[in-house]
Design goal:
Protein-Tyrosine Phosphatase, Chain A, single chain, nucleotide-binding, UDP-N-acetylmuramoylalanine--D-glutamate ligase, nine-stranded mixed sheet, EC 6.3.2.9, globular, Rossmann fold, UDP-N-acetylmuramoyl-L-alanine:D-glutamate ligase, about 475 residues, Mur_ligase_C_dom_sf, Mur_ligase_C, six-stranded mixed sheet
């Protein structure tokens, strides 16, 4: 992408309305570009269309017209979720027209340092924790990106004395070229989103674009325990600050004693060993405001990011203790007849669900299922055998997950009809799970799947679950 002013009088195509598309369209329009916004949804399903039309921006809804992208187009900015296989993007690539996402645009207009977090799991909690740590230290963070606020809006607001703390998905990063964050964190990489990326190689390479343009002046915060992250450590040009839950590092953040040690149940401490070899205590693991070994990992990552920008360790510790979690991430909903209900709708892959189950000490009645991305879900078998005492499945993958439960020997298994009203389906699942539960058990929504087969988002899935619990 060129400087924004260079697009004055030139044609720019924005694919996809939604929050980021609207923000980018306004930005290029104000810069004097000839903007066309296209969304395949019908006009009545695009509430943002009228606002853009009133500004003089051309809005085309209902399809992707064949002449939308042509030789006169200077740039295409796509919604991250739109696949690269659609005709307008294929045409742009044939014509040599640059195709980017909002992240690239935001980078070119942002005055503030960028602290960017990506990963298969944990990125939202890590981003939120990091933002709170910087705020507590008076560093004026602005939290944006995949976590909620359009990145270009935040970038326009940011001044040099702010810090832009950004959650990024592989979808967003795939459409970047010059993008360079001063501090970049990869929490972990597991197999997911292959319906979009087609191959694991493309998924990993998209994640690694986070580090592609970093220099020795920048910092890469990486998970020592994850094979992909470990490989990246030897490839990046930036300074590496590692974190680990399983290894005492010569430099970085880690747990003493490491997780997985035989003396399970002993008190553990999160620490930071600086380059001089001095070890600084951050916080005891049982003082974290949210439970689970995966949240120890997230706490280490967030602490590393905060330390990099100079947040005092005492401030980091206070935030780690007081934070009570993000909605839809192991969120306590309530109890009925001594059965507790937790909403973990953000668990959109099997690894996230496994880590959540392992974080709980109670017997679990699990509600799972959703968009079918081709997995067989056999990795769920061990936790089904150890800790899951009942299962309710829904969505496209309900038979697959039911099959794993039968192999695990679960006797309490039920699938719910997904052909009915979606809220009624969720209500039926919650009631079925509650009927399976005994006092002291946990009913856990942790789907191991994306939500898009039945719901517009994992947030809506979580909200419907909570409503059904409250109506029991």
């Amino acid at each position: 992408m060129e400087h924004l002013d260079n697009y004055r009088g030139r044609q720019v195509v924005i694919l996809g309305l939604a929050r980021s598309g609207v923000a980018v369209a306004k930005l290029f329009h104000e810069a004097g570009a000839l903007v066309t916004v296209n969304d395949k949804k019908e006009r009545h399903l695009c509430p943002e269309a009228d606002e853009l039309s009133a500004l003089g921006i051309s809005v085309v809804c209902g399809s992707h017209p064949s002449g939308l992208v042509h030789e006169g187009v200077a740039l295409v900015v796509k919604n991250p979720g739109i696949p690269y296989t659609i005709d307008p993007i294929q045409k742009a690539e044939q014509l040599g027209i640059e195709v980017i996402t909002e992240v690239e645009v935001a980078y070119h207009i942002c005055k503030a340092p960028l602290i960017c977090i990506t990963g298969s799991n944990g990125k939202t909690t890590t981003t939120t924790w990091t933002g709170l740590m910087l705020e507590a230290a008076g560093l004026k963070p602005i939290v944006a990106g995949n976590i909620g606020r359009a990145l270009t809006e935040a970038a326009l607001e940011a001044e040099a004395d702010n810090h832009l703390v950004v959650e990024l998905s592989s979808f967003q990063l795939k459409g970047t070229n010059a993008f360079r964050p001063q501090i970049a964190c990869l929490t972990n990489v597991y197999e997911t989103h292959l319906d979009y990326h087609q191959t694991m190689e493309d998924y990993v390479n998209s994640k690694l674009k986070l580090f592609a343009n970093q220099t020795e002046e920048d910092t890469a915060v990486l998970n020592w325990d994850n094979p992909v992250c470990r490989r990246v450590m030897s490839e990046v040009r930036s300074q590496v600050l590692p974190f680990s839950t399983t290894t005492e590092l010569e430099y970085g953040l880690f747990v003493q004693p490491p997780l997985g040690a035989k003396d399970d149940g002993v008190e553990r401490t999160l620490v930071y060993r600086d380059r001089q070899g001095e070890v600084h205590t951050v916080v005891k693991s049982d003082e974290l405001g949210i439970p689970g070994s995966f949240n120890i990992e997230n706490a280490l990552a967030a602490s590393a990011l905060a330390i990099t920008v100079g947040v005092p360790i005492e401030t980091i510790a206070e935030v780690l203790k007081s934070f009570r979690g993000v909605e839809h991430r192991l969120e306590y909903v309530g109890s009925k007849d001594d059965v507790a209900f937790y909403n973990n709708s953000k668990a959109t892959n099997p690894t996230a669900t496994i880590k959540t189950i392992e974080a709980m000490k109670q017997n679990i009645i699990l509600i799972a299922g959703g968009l079918d991305r081709g997995s067989d879900y056999m990795e769920l078998l061990p936790v089904f055998q150890r800790q899951v005492h009942g299962l309710v499945t829904l969505g496209e993958t309900k038979e697959k997950i039911e099959h794993v439960a039968r192999l695990a020997g679960l006797s309490q298994v039920k699938t719910v009809d997904t052909a009915t009203n979606v809220q009624d389906t969720v209500t039926a699942a919650v009631r079925a799970a509650f009927e399976m539960a005994k006092p002291g058990d946990v009913v856990l929504l942790s789907p191991a799947c994306a939500s898009w087969d039945m719901f517009p988002s994992y947030e809506e899935r979580g909200r419907m679950f909570k409503q059904s619990v409250h109506n029991l």
